[in-house]
Design brief:
single chain; about 450 residues; mainly alpha; 19 helices; about 75% helix; binds tryptophan
């Protein structure tokens, strides 16, 4: 059951892997979620905390996941089983597979909105916007429309399935190499426009000058949640991608690059959003609609606005696509490795499942009063799914992975996997301490805080 019948695919090159993994990490979490969470949490001080968590928790957990995957050459369940047979550890992998499909379902709804906005921008819907309220109204009405949201969800999952069908080197890697550089260029162009708008300085100050009075336990928890989500950690996505890395590559360097690119894109996205936001006199704590409301108004003021507007939402769709690919790939690798399914069958069934599970999220933006305000929790379905999976499950997953590597597999074995083929493990004593002590303790403290206060991330 555990031995795949065919030879396992591998990434064709180191840069191919780094781009694919950066593609997984860079997504709506960076360009859509990071700016609005930063806005809600008071700006620069939050950004600083976020970066600290990326370095102290993100990098070591990333390295741990990649090493587990490459060592075992298996999906998350198989990987834990291979390293720790006859234990409960494979359940951590299973939790990852389930969480991946769950996140895929609602993430694709939001990705569908971005694709819908691409179509709208092409059609000139954002020309001659007279006020921010108008832009905000367009968004609210759009996400309320059940047919459109479900149709875009479907289109998006079909595109995800199409790429995953092509496999690792011929599908995911090939597309990442085309799509990621395109994303970088467009983001830079838009940022240049944003920082040269009138009154951009107020936005830059909010974003870059820290006010430590704004840090509290809630901000700290949000920063950690955002760091894990943004790096695609805590559910075995990186175990899966790691399982296709060649033994020749230096894992520590690859992990470093992926974290660096992801952080750069998030930080630059803030530079793109906040100056524009302040220039238009909008509230930085505007919540999830931020990107959809602010950006159409910037495009309207640019020469060639339709081109940039459509280009931006297309690329946001692309960034989301390289992320959903990784979410789907976890379950697909699981069924291919463990049950010898054909890739095709796994892709069809798993993306179909994500579509069905995504429907309640697609209907939760006001189209259905039950789904937009669930009993007991008083949250919309999408928000609730995000708290449960995107926050709790990933945080618990990251905690268990750090404990697994620190205490079960051991730093020695981790190090042996990293230093295979004469690769160097930079800063080994430092990372050993971080994985064994700092990561678990920091995550447990934050989880306790959320449980005791009932504050979400
Ligand atoms: N990191 C992606 C983003 O920032 C989302 C994502 C893709 C993800 N795969 C994941 C998040 C796995 C958690 C786990 O948009």
């Amino acid at each position: 059951m555990n031995t795949p019948s065919k030879k396992r695919d591998v990434w064709g090159s180191k840069i191919g892997f780094v781009l694919a993994a950066a593609g997984s990490a860079i997504g709506l979490g960076n360009i859509w979620r990071f700016p609005y969470v930063t806005g809600e949490n008071g700006g620069a001080a939050f950004v600083l905390l976020y970066i600290i968590f990326i370095v102290l928790i993100g990098v070591p957990v990333m390295l741990s996941e990649l090493a587990i995957g490459r060592h075992a050459q298996r999906n998350p369940v198989g990987a834990f089983r291979k390293i720790a047979p006859k234990s409960l550890w494979p359940l951590v992998g299973l939790m990852g597979v389930v969480t991946g499909i769950g996140i895929l379902s609602y993430y694709s709804v939001i990705a569908g909105w971005t694709f819908g906005y691409f179509i709208k921008a092409l059609g000139g819907s954002f020309s001659n916007l007279t006020s921010a309220e108008q832009s905000s109204q367009i968004f609210t009405e759009f996400v309320k429309n059940p047919y459109q949201c479900i149709a875009y969800l479907f289109v998006f999952l079909t595109a995800t399935g199409f790429v995953v069908l092509g496999g690792i080197s011929g599908g995911i890697e090939k597309w990442a190499k085309i799509l990621m550089p395109l994303l970088f260029v467009l983001l830079l162009l838009l940022t240049l426009r944003s920082v040269t708008l009138p009154n951009a300085k107020a936005g830059l100050e909010f974003y870059l000058a820290p006010n430590f009075g704004k840090i509290n336990a809630g901000t700290i928890a949000s920063a950690l949640g955002q760091a894990l989500f943004s790096l695609s950690l805590g559910m075995g996505a990186m175990i899966t991608y790691g399982s296709y890395i060649s033994k020749k590559d230096n894992l520590a360097i690859s992990a470093g690059y992926v974290c660096l690119f992801d952080t750069l894109i998030a930080v630059v996205s803030g530079l793109m959003i906040f100056p524009a936001l302040f220039s238009m006199g909008l509230d930085p704590s505007g919540g999830p609609g931020l990107v959809f409301v602010v950006l159409p108004s910037i495009f309207d003021k640019m020469p060639g606005g339709i081109f940039f507007g459509a280009g931006f939402f297309l690329l946001l769709t692309v960034a989301a696509l390289t992320s959903t690919i990784s979410l789907l790939e976890v379950a697909v690798t699981y069924f291919v490795d463990e049950f010898n399914w054909q890739r095709r069958r796994a892709v069809l069934l798993m993306s179909g499942l994500a579509f069905v599970l995504g429907i309640p999220s697609a209907l939760s933006q006001g189209a259905n009063s039950l789904l937009s305000n669930l009993p007991l929790v008083h949250l919309g379905f999408l928000d609730f799914a995000n708290i449960l999976l995107g926050n709790y499950s990933l945080t618990i997953g990251a905690l268990l992975i750090a404990i697994f590597v620190g205490y079960k597999w051991g730093i020695k074995n981790l190090s042996a996997e990293i230093t295979i083929e004469n690769n160097h493990f930079y800063g080994r004593p430092f990372w050993a301490i971080v994985i064994r002590y700092l990561c678990p303790v920091a995550i447990i403290v934050i989880l306790l805080y959320i449980l005791l206060t009932g504050n979400y991330f």
